[in-house]
Specification:
The chain is α+β, with helices and mostly antiparallel strands and 252 residues long. It has helices at 2-25, 85-100, 108-115; strands at residues 55-58, 71-82, 119-120, 122-123, 133-134, 142-146, 159-162, 165-166, 176-177, 204-205, 214-226, 232-234, 238-246.
Length: 252
């Protein structure tokens, strides 16, 4: 009887120690990262008017609901280039269905990044260390993204802005580029970094080059943070839309 009592005491001490260890490591804290704000329907694969070929969303930098030891990093934008519009519709429909279902929304970011291999959007001459849109103390700001240039019209040039200004306090426009070779999305232009996508590129989905020269790019916004154990955590995904880019034309 005495032996059983001692065994129970040792087991209780073990459980208490394990509980304290997990607490100290932060492993018992599950952090739900709040997603960026969607502000309406963006462009789609059928959008032809160049003046509507842009993407918008609002950041969500309100830290009031996070534990003190959670590091909110900011917001990333993920993209994928497709050679077929039907593939865009099929994959984004699957992703959007995951995001809209409460029971599966926690898996949407993993599906986006690891299954469909969406790539993080980059900025020309600005290596991204943590997030495309880093955290700042303003709770909500408008992000504007235009991937391509239309003629030489300033209002329709490729850029990313935050509250109407270039990112990172830059004195010049911050230009979105692919996560492959620093190439632009001006598929129909002839600059050194204006490269037409190729089947097999890490950011391209498709089995053959489009016969009409039209490629499609879909975008999602995702907030991200890091726990006390340096585990990366992602918010639900926010679909921003998709655009067609004609590799046979310099203007898109």
């Amino acid at each position: 009887m005495l032996g059983n009592k001692k065994s129970k005491i040792r087991f209780f001490i073990f459980l208490t120690g394990l509980f304290l260890f997990l607490n100290s490591c932060g492993l018992d804290t599950f952090v739900v990262v709040e997603p960026p704000y969607s502000i309406g329907v963006g462009p789609n694969v059928d959008t032809e008017d160049y003046s509507y070929k842009f993407f918008q969303f609002d950041t969500n930098c309100d830290l009031s609901g996070y534990p003190d030891d959670f590091v909110f990093l900011g917001t990333n934008v993920y993209y994928k280039i497709y050679s077929n519009p039907n593939d865009v519709i099929a994959q984004t429909s699957t992703l959007n269905a995951l995001a809209e279902d409460f029971e599966t929304s926690a898996t949407a970011a993993s599906k986006l990044i690891h299954t469909y291999s969406y790539q993080p959007l980059q900025i020309k001459n600005y290596p991204i260390e943590a997030a495309l849109i880093p955290f700042n103390t303003i709770p909500r700001e408008l992000v504007y993204i235009r991937l391509t240039d239309y003629q030489d019209i300033p209002n329709f040039e490729s850029r990313i802005t935050l509250s109407g200004k270039p990112l990172y306090n830059s004195s010049t426009r911050t230009i979105p580029v692919r996560n492959v070779g620093n190439y632009t999305f001006n598929f129909g232009r002839t600059g050194d970094f204006d490269k037409v996508p190729e089947i097999g590129d890490a950011d391209v989905y498709g089995s053959s080059v489009p016969s009409d020269g039209i490629w499609y790019v879909a975008l999602y916004a995702v907030a991200l943070g890091r726990t006390v154990t340096f585990e990366q955590q992602y918010s639900n995904i926010v679909y921003l839309g998709a655009i067609a880019i004609d590799a046979n034309s310099p203007d898109n």
